[in-house]
Automatic annotation (TrEMBL):
InterPro entries: Pectin_lyas_fold, Pectin_lyase_fold/virulence, Secre_tail
Secretion system C-terminal sorting domain boundaries: 351-415
Keywords noted in UniProt: Signal
Protein name: Secretion system C-terminal sorting domain-containing protein
Organism whose genome encodes this protein: Flavobacterium enshiense DK69
Alphabetical list of Gene3D superfamilies matching this protein: Single-stranded right-handed beta-helix, Pectin lyase-like
Signal peptide: 1-19
NCBIfam families for this protein: Por_Secre_tail
Amino acid sequence: MKTIKNVLLVFLFCSTVYAQTNVSGGIYSNTIWKKVNNPYIVTDNIVVFPGVNLTIEPGVIAKFNPGVGLEVRGKLIAIGNENDSITFTSNLPSPIRQSWNGITVVGTDETGGVRDQVIMEYCKGEFANYFINLDIAYNGPYIFRHCYFANNRQVNYDGGIPSTIFENCKFESNSTALGGCQFASRVSNSVFINNVYGIEGFDNIENCFFSGHTVALSPYGSTVGCTIQNNFIGVRAWFNSTNNRFVNNTVSNNDVGFEIISYFDDVVFTGNTICNNNSWNLKLYHSNNADLSSNCWCSTDPSFISSTIIDGYENIEYGLVNFIPFMTSCQETENENNEPLDNKNFPPAAFPNPFNDQLTLRIPGGELTTIYLYDFLGSLVLQETTTKNSIIINTDQLVDGIYFYELRSDKGRLKAGKLIKQ
């Protein structure tokens, strides 16, 4: 009898662990997906019909079979929280990009209909073709806050009307994070890491961080207060429409900092720091001259600044870049209100690299962190502890050469790497 009881207990335990809810077809009345019924396996296409809400509770995991997606003609409300997010992912054991179709939004009642048709907070979207397709979505705004998007072909397809908003999100290892999105679209306070392409066309980009891309950013309208570093190409810009602004951004430590494919006189391009890029700080590939005065190039030598720029002096097919007058000192990236950026969503980093007499360390979250700097032989040459989001260290006492740094908190090592002083 004792043996039978043990077998029964094991059976009941396994039944609980492997419980799941299979879903497909139409949703015709208000429906709630509950965490207790996890995971939801979407075996075939689902349609949320007009006038109907699909509400998804914190902690729900929705797994989609290959070639399957969710179509929203009504309303989708997926609001998780910091401790219990909502996941949309593939049902394959080893998923790859485009493993499922994604979410398609249909909202074509331009005179009324549902408003706030899609709201997502603390959601994860992974392995989709287009995670959110807003091509015929007219019942917005479409709002995504504190979301994480990874390993998708592209997070969005087009933008919804009247606007599409991404705030405090992270985009990682997608083919393209965000594609063409107009209609007063905005992405702010977000992090873009190791996508092939970061953003290709967005109306408003504010206080974002980009690293690890083939091309980090191709802005469409206004870009303010962003940090763009450690990419192959930092910015590739077509300044050929109205309302082009590129203001108070930092473009550094990329292979090529900035490529300008087209340029017209109504561009506002000031207050930026563009320097320490490996091959070129800037390339002008257009026959128009470009006024890029009132920016910082990390030098006060006009000849040196000119040597980091490709324009009509190197190829007569191109226009000429005017960078005078230039800023003589580079400030930390600030937003339009002159407030320091909140670094808590940005990865830790040390820059510029190579450095000269000053080294800036950025530490996310402002947690108690110790900075260690070692010389090439491994001897500790500098140690400092701080709770600030960023700190500037005077390094004029160090000799030129190779150094290694480490950022360490109570949680362990945050970041380590190699630096060069020259």
